[in-house]
Design a protein that fits this description.
Oligomer: single chain
Structural class: alpha/beta
Distance between the termini: 53 Å
Number of strands: 15
Strand content: 5-15%
């Protein structure tokens, strides 16, 4: 049985009996706002002793009008509306069901048995299994087929657990038998973890906390099934040096008492890895950093600065934290050990931090003649995430003067317009009449905006606009505040659509040949891109890949966009849209706004699909928010 949307809406409204908007409910249950409104209008007549009221501006609220009638309704009627039988006519549901069946079975499963269970033909099951294989490929898992035996899931236990967590537990818990037991167990785990983390004064962000709860639930479930992770003695010894191991030990001890389970040293180490990957990376480690390690860190930060134009070379906290992290990492390198990173996919969603970590890791690759694993790059990425968050506060630094000759009211309207468009860029905005401009210290401003021609003895840039700020003015001012022209970053003649290419190699060859026709960067372009691909795949979720040269070759920063007719497998993930980035060699633009635009787009599948389904250049700029003309 699976939960109906009625039950999901009911649960949200009765969780706190407070107002919830249709948009808020829609977001929680992954449907449209209109669907929520329709469901509530259908649900209301079914309720007895209660009703759902709406109030403009506040949303919906659940109210009990008669306790006895409502109690009777819950006991006798509500079950009929809150659950429905499994729907094997729905392919999406079948795929998740097949996935769960494979993940939770050790033995081979016969094709006939599975098709009979699902009440579908063998040919339809084959189509469903192709979809399942696509999902499994994202987790480095595969299906093994054996004559007369059937099919069986193959892969590392780490990867199986990540798949269970992301595909079943986190998004489709209704597939889990005994759903009430699932919710009770989750709440018990949450209570235990909160207590232990408070005891150790160990802080993690909310999203990381919820992920930890899900991973602990999966650990319990797999332990009951006698499916265990294997860490290795040396990794366990390394992990025992961290306080996260003590925290993991206590969490699992309390969970073990609660659920009558016993956890191995490997399982404790596994949870310790999660904690290490989720912790707030404060410098509470007093170990001394050797000169040789510090020199490596400096080279890593220089590599990031020179390639991505992100200058973190003066960030002392980052330098110290990377140094402290490198000391045990270098030991693992020397012993040919790797720490598994349980939340690598989550980390990679922060694409610019992960890219910075990948480039930084290339310094280690060169020094130690190895290829640092994606798991280890993920841990390094966490330090860059913290550093870049701390750096975001530097942006509001511009002091602006607005000059006007049509009265105080017009000046205030211009100021309000300006703040509406550029609030995130500025520190202070002043207005001035033209006849009083001689009294202003113009050199104290970063930019002067004027609606009338002025002649002034100042080095401060002056941008002349019309009576009010129009779209063209917005574009010119934004280009100045960014330090570069965002439109030129995405040239029209390098926005390529309807590409009929079938492999990563074909795509890269086609794009680099075209770039060389336009920009003449030379044969090294493809070679440098391939060098970067060797470090770690440049594929991301949501059908996106972001290849680029390991070492910059271009005089200007620009991005080639390629959209394929059909998705291809890049490394393990499907890709249909390619952003081939070329960063300028010598121009040291601050590209944080560009990375923010790309990062926001990268994680928004809806906007990505809008571009893929309507691959028009102006539509693309509009969806990215760069169409100020």
């Amino acid at each position: 049985m699976i939960e109906t949307r009625y039950k999901k809406i009911f649960d949200i409204l009765t969780k706190d009996y407070d107002f919830h908007t249709a948009s808020e409910i829609a977001g929680e249950i992954s449907v449209s706002k209109k669907t929520v409104q329709n469901d509530i209008s259908e649900l209301n007549p079914l309720l007895k002793g209660a009703k759902i009221e709406s109030k403009r501006g506040k949303g919906y609220i659940f109210k009990i009008t008669n306790k006895d009638d409502f109690s009777y309704f819950l006991k006798n009627n509500w079950l009929n509306y809150s659950f429905e039988e499994t729907d094997f006519n729905n392919q999406a549901y079948r795929i998740k069901y097949i996935l769960m069946t494979l993940l939770f079975n050790k033995a081979y499963i016969k094709i006939d048995d599975l098709s009979n269970k699902l009440m579908i033909s063998r040919s339809q099951l084959k189509l469903d299994l192709n979809k399942v294989k696509e999902i499994l490929r994202n987790y480095k898992l595969s299906l093994e087929s054996k004559p007369y035996y059937g099919i069986k899931l193959m892969g590392d236990e780490f990867d199986k657990r990540m798949c269970i967590k992301k595909e079943i537990v986190q998004v489709n818990p209704e597939l889990i038998p005994n759903l009430n037991d699932y919710y009770q167990e989750i709440e018990s785990i949450r209570r235990i973890v909160i207590g232990v983390l408070e005891k150790y004064d160990f802080n993690i962000i909310d999203i990381a906390f919820e992920n930890l709860i899900y991973h602990l639930y999966v650990t319990c479930k797999r332990t009951r099934q006698k499916e265990f992770v294997l860490i290795g003695v040396r990794d366990i010894l390394n992990l025992r040096e961290n306080r996260e191991y003590d925290i993991a030990d206590e969490i699992l001890s309390e969970i073990g008492e609660e659920f009558s389970l016993s956890f191995s040293e490997d399982e404790k180490a596994y949870i310790a890895m999660h904690l290490i990957s989720k912790r707030n990376l404060n410098n509470d480690n007093k170990n001394e950093i050797s000169k040789s390690v510090d020199e490596i860190v400096v080279k890593m930060l220089n590599k990031v600065r020179d390639t991505l134009h992100i200058d973190l070379t003066h960030d002392l906290d980052l330098r110290v934290n990377l140094g402290l992290h490198l000391m045990p990492l270098i030991k693992r390198i020397n012993y040919h050990l790797t720490l598994k990173n349980p939340i690598l996919d989550d980390i990679k969603n922060d694409f610019i931090s992960y890219e910075a970590a990948t480039l930084a890791s290339s310094v280690l690759n060169e020094k130690y003649k190895i290829n640092i694993s994606e798991d280890e790059i993920g841990y390094i990425s966490l330090y860059f995430t913290i550093a870049l968050r701390n750096r975001q506060v530097d942006r509001k630094s511009k002091n602006i003067l607005i000059v006007c000759n049509t009265g105080k009211a017009t000046a205030q309207i211009l100021k309000a317009q300006f703040l509406n468009e550029f609030r995130n860029y500025v520190n202070r905005v002043n207005t001035c009449d033209l006849n009083k401009i001689s009294k202003e210290n113009l050199d104290s401003y970063d930019l002067i905006i004027t609606s009338v021609p002025i002649e002034a003895n100042t080095d401060t840039p002056i941008i002349e606009i019309g009576a009010f700020i129009n779209n063209k003015d917005v574009k010119n001012i934004k280009n100045f505040l960014n330090g570069y022209d965002m439109d030129k970053i995405f040239p029209r003649d390098l926005f390529l659509t309807d590409l009929d290419l079938s492999s990563k190699e074909e795509v890269l060859k086609y794009l680099t040949d075209l770039i060389n026709q336009k920009k003449n960067l030379g044969d090294d372009l493809l070679l440098e891109i391939k060098k970067r691909e060797v470090l770690a795949p440049t594929e991301f979720d949501n059908l996106i890949a972001l290849p680029h040269p390991l070492n910059a070759l271009s005089l200007d920063t620009f991005i080639t966009v390629g959209i394929l007719k059909e998705p291809i497998i890049w490394h393990r993930k499907k890709v249909q849209m390619i952003f081939l980035m070329n960063i300028a060699q010598k121009k040291k633009e601050d590209l944080k706004d560009l990375y923010q635009v790309i990062g926001d787009f990268l994680t928004d599948r809806q906007r990505i699909m809008q571009v893929i389904n309507n691959p028009d250049y102006m539509n693309f700029l509009k969806i990215l928010g760069l169409d100020s003309k």
